[in-house]
Amino acid sequence: KAGVTQTPRYLIKTRGQQVTLSCSPISGHRSVSWYQQTPGQGLQFLFEYFSETQRNKGNFPGRFSGRQFSNSRSEMNVSTLELGDSALYLCASSFDRSNTEAFFGQGTRLTVV
Amino acid sequence: GESVGLHLPTLSVQEGDNSIINCAYSNSASDYFIWYKQESGKGPQFIIDIRSNMDKRQGQRVTVLLNKTVKHLSLQIAATQPGDSAVYFCAENMNSGGYQKVTFGIGTKLQVIP
């Protein structure tokens, strides 16, 4: 059974650009959550999607957005990139919304220059 | 406000000894707590969880203890091995308005000395 797949693994963008990251959950999983991880900050929750609807949202500006497709694959988008957006973006999938056992992907390392 | 924090950012343990990683939380309404392990270059990996109505739960070589009186959570790893070297995160999950909200701690780096 394939794990959570995130693409791309690494990305370099310049300030002001926008970026789209992709996450394919484990087959059968319907809940997808996104997190930002930076040194010293730990994991910060971005948002959660279930059945193509955003169910929960963390404290991030509107530049951060996402969506989920009917096959549960999810994308997140960051517009007008800032240097501080450089981080590891992690996606986690779980079977349902209880989130007791979420499976994380390896993440996308975004560097903004 | 809500917060999940860790007492020690780095923990060095001799191979074969037991490791204890601690975590303090502030939200008494949390439903359950989760420990994750993150190795270098990888995403976090679920280790074990415990519901708020329990005070102890055991897994393979790991035990999680929950003390709701002092809002403290710990992860005990028995017979620590080099492969246990990683960053360990505690997380608390709370049902807020019908939505699940997970808050992670900053993490503790466990270094196993051979």
Summarize the structure.
The complex is a heterodimer of chains A (113) and B (114). With 113 residues, chain A is an all-beta fold.
Describe the structure.
The complex is a heterodimer of chains A (113) and B (114). Chain A is mostly beta strands and 113 residues long. Chain A contains no helices and 11 strands. In chain A, the strands form 2 sheets. In chain A, strands 2, 4, 5, 6, 9, 10 and 11 form a 7-stranded mixed sheet that branches. In chain A, strand 4 and strand 5 (42-50) form a beta hairpin. With 114 residues, chain B is mostly beta strands. Chain B has no helices and 11 strands. Chain B has strands at residues 4-5, 10-14, 19-25, 32-38, 45-51, 56-58, 62-67, 72-77, 86-96, 99-104, 108-113. In chain B, strands 2, 4, 5, 9, 10 and 11 form a 6-stranded mixed sheet that branches. A 5-stranded antiparallel sheet of chain B has the order 1-3-8-7-6, with no helix packed on it. Classes of the chains: A mainly beta (113), B mainly beta (114). At the A-B interface, strand 5 and strand 10 of A face strand 4, strand 5, strand 9 and strand 10 of B.
Q: What keyword list fits this structure?
A:
heterodimer, A: 113 residues, mainly beta, 7-stranded mixed beta sheet, 4-stranded antiparallel beta sheet, 53% strand, B: 114 residues, 6-stranded mixed beta sheet, 5-stranded antiparallel beta sheet, 11 strands
Mean pLDDT metric of chain B = 88
Please count the helical segments of chain A. 0
Order of helices and strands of chain B: EEEEEEEEEEE
Structural class of chain A: mainly beta
Bin the strand percentage of chain B: over 45%
Shape of chain B: globular
